[in-house]
Amino acid sequence: MNVDIKSKFKGVISVIGASEIDKKIEELTFEIGRLLAKNRFIIACGGLSGVMEAVCRGAKEENGLTIGIIPHTKKIMANKYVDIVIPCPFSQARNIVVVLSGDACLAISGKAGTLSEICFAWIYQKPIIALSSVKGWSSKIANQKLDNRREDIIYGVETPQDAIDKLNELFE
Asked: Is 0.85 surpassed by the pTM of this model?
């Protein structure tokens, strides 16, 4: 990041989660996007639908900056709330790029793809926050250790504000 960007933003949060979500998850994720932008975090995500679109839409509500790392060669495939589109058409290998783009990882719901991103975040020593109040991998792994490679745990949070509070604590 250049000097102006570094002074404007605290860091980049990789937001991971399901591409198909219900209304509750959509509302929670939208609120997380709003709060991330309001708290000066950049969002990196897979750039498509579901959690990815809801978090970007929330961020845009607060004039936040969003990055979408999409599994296609055509940038037009990203959801309309993505500011910076990075084509990465390497199937599940893109999950590593999504995780490594962030300074921390925030998991919301999720299926097998989200689980792989959680594992990559763990391996690459990224702090992981998991929303435990929704169904999916984020609630299954909240407050757990994946193995003994790390001293910390996957931090479980109940609400969007809890997620932001945890991120602000980690970035102090």
From this structure: yes
Q: Is the pLDDT of residue 5 over 80?
A: no
For residue 29, the domain's CATH number is 3.40.50.450
Strand order in the sheet with 41-45: 84-87, 66-70, 41-45, 11-17, 104-108, 128-131, 155-157
**Pair of tokens at residue 127:** 């702090």
How high does pLDDT run on average in the chain? Answer: 95
Q: Tell me, what's the pLDDT at 3?
A: 56
On the question of pLDDT at 60 being above 60, the answer is yes
Identify any residues that bridge with 16 across adjacent strands, giving them in sequence order: 107
pLDDT of residue 8: 87
CA 6 to chain centre: 19
Distance CA 147, CA 54 (A): 31
What is the number of helices (H) and of strands (E) in the chain?
Answer: 7, 7
The CA-to-CA distance between both ends of the chain, in Å, stands at: 19
Domain with 57, as residue range(s), is: 3-170
Count of structural domains within the chain: 1
Cβ-based neighbours of 146, under 8 Å, separated by 6 or more:
118, 119, 122, 154
